[in-house]
Amino acid sequence: MNEANSTEQATARFEFLWTIVVAATIVLLLAVIAFTSVHGSTMPSAGVEVIDATSLHRSGEFIEANLGTGVDSRGNTVVHLLAQQYSFRPHCILIPAGVPVIFRATSSDVVHGLQIQGTNINAMAVPGYISTFNATLPVTGERAMPCHEFCGVGHAAMWARVRVVTSQEFQTLLSQKSRVSCD
Description:
This protein is of the alpha+beta class. Helix content is 28%, strand content 31%. It has two domains: 1-43; 53-176, Sandwich (Immunoglobulin-like), CATH 2.60.40.420.
């Protein structure tokens, strides 16, 4: 009887120890969640660029004349893209093959997603913020770029095209005007 009693006591101590370990783990995880929530809301990322979504068409880098692909003052190939219900502007993006391209996208109304099919390019266009990402598409051809965030009743028809051309063809088109697209 003494041996059974000591086994029960050992089991009870073991269960109590595991209860404390599990409870401590839960408390630690809740503390991490609380800390990251408070920290994230009070200290936004340093790389966040904000923009006034109500004046996109009137001034700044997303006016109609700046949309499309161009080369900035440092020689970088830059695409300015505007998402709005239910279209991307420009509807067809022209980029050179094998050249690093900086995409800068924003939205004028609701959250949109853009994904260039056949690549790992996947970004969000959020009103009031500029999404910036770099990409290099090595092969010429055309790819679809659908909106992958539900943005309203016309969402299914919201897509654009990305046409990748040779660097020489891109330079020829760029010599004719400062911003190019295949529209």
